[in-house]
Predict the structure.
Amino acid sequence: MTDNPEVLIIGGGPVGLSAALALGRAGITCLVLERRTEFSRYPKANGVHARTMEIFREWAVAEPVKALTAGMPNEITIAWMTRLNGIEIGQLVLGGSEELARVFSQQSPEMMSTVGQHMFEPVLAEVAGDLDSVTIELGCEVVDLISGEDSVTVTYTDQAGAPHSVVAQYVIGADGIRSIARRALGIGEHGEASLGTAINVQFDADLDSVLGGRRSPIIWIVNPDTQGAFIRDSPTRWRYNFEIPPGADVDAVTQDRCEREVAAAIGAVVPFTIHQVWSWGHDQAVTDRWREGRVFLAGDAAHHFPPHGGFGMNSGIQDAHNLAWKLIASLRWGAGDGLLESYEAERLPVAEFNGEKMMENTRQMEKTGFLSQDKSLLSVIETDAGEPARRAIAEGIPAQRDQLASHGQQFGYQYVSAAIVPDGTELIESSVAEYRQTARPGARAPHSWVCLGGERISTIDVYDGGFVLLTGPDNAGWVRAAEQVRAELAVPVKVLGLGTDLVPVDELLGDLLGRYGLGTTGALLVRPDGFVGFRSAGRDDDEPGALSGALRQILDRSVS
């Protein structure tokens, strides 16, 4: 047990474990308190976005995570049917083509994984727990916290119910929708009213006899008796999600009701065994503040939205990635409080945007019969008279593609904060589906395939927890500037020349420099989270002064 951790993390889910992993790799002492006595056993939060896989790649956990779904097809087919043994209404096919793989490879070194939280959470726990600086305690429930000027005192009970108190320099509340950290601090939230509640029924059944050879991992069901979705977790392990209206009593949904819904969705007499039932709401909320003194909120404690698009857990892991380097900078590099203030300034707008889009995705799904209250449509959907209704649903299926192939939303957002030094260039915006690469300050630095020492790597692979200065090939002035700034500020800054250290693969040097908006004498400062903090398109009259000034602004360090 860490008696006086530098950072205490409330919650050992994907967000809390990601924070511990990022901090622990830098030697920050962390204590993770998780109220559960074991990690996730029930399937949820399927789908790790390519952007999150990049972060896992940085932490050397991408390969173990990908191994969890080894052998799964690259192509995903999502089907819409009246029942499993009923009428197929339409399909949506994602991925699989060589052309799409080529396009994605130009945008990121990683692809989305269909792995679920219950599968990769133990991987994060093992890797983080193996770090000497990280302690993970299960069965520990936080009951109170008091934030002081120089520290935070946290009170919790262990598995035996014994009370404990621990003092940390900072606290991260990654403890979900019902966050004790948020409640203790009295932080409110704003958002949209619920569109309904999903009831998730996990069950075992051999459904191959009614699937007709289909291998779809997700099958949406629309009929008069039930509307919902089957999600396949293994050859015989399934989930069926169905909806109840806003304000309906979740506790009134009985085991018998769940059995009827599943049977009506299957459509044939097939034995099945229900193991677990749980629920979540189709609502959206973002907390009004993400920080109170030395306490920060992340993940579902700071925002929650419907799952359609998969930005809940992924946004939370990216919250942790953003916050972790800023805490490291505060604890190790003398950063000022302004850098910690930039956490909310950068991540809150992203959460609001993602939440709005996921609510929009939920409404878009009404075109496919989801949350439908149209009794006239549902009553005929399985008959000859229902052919026009089925055709209307089929016509609404292509509109669902953007929420499932959302590279623009994943990679295209840009930060505006005091931890970004603007360069006055025009904003290049992405759509939800289309990612338009830019190295404008505030954007994620674009991925490029390069060769370093004879090895083909992504530019993302050079990130090592410190700052990276990517320069044009004529970089002698920037190399001297980095040497001077390292000595002056005691901050890690690595210099790599494009065309010299990092040689482009399958493209011309001019194209590589153009992607970053640089001339042969320019430089681009990439923050530890992979976002551009400063850019000089060409040579500066005072390169040491320009680089020092940029780092001082980003880190909120005054001139000594």
Remarks:
- The first strand starts at residue 7 and ends at 10.
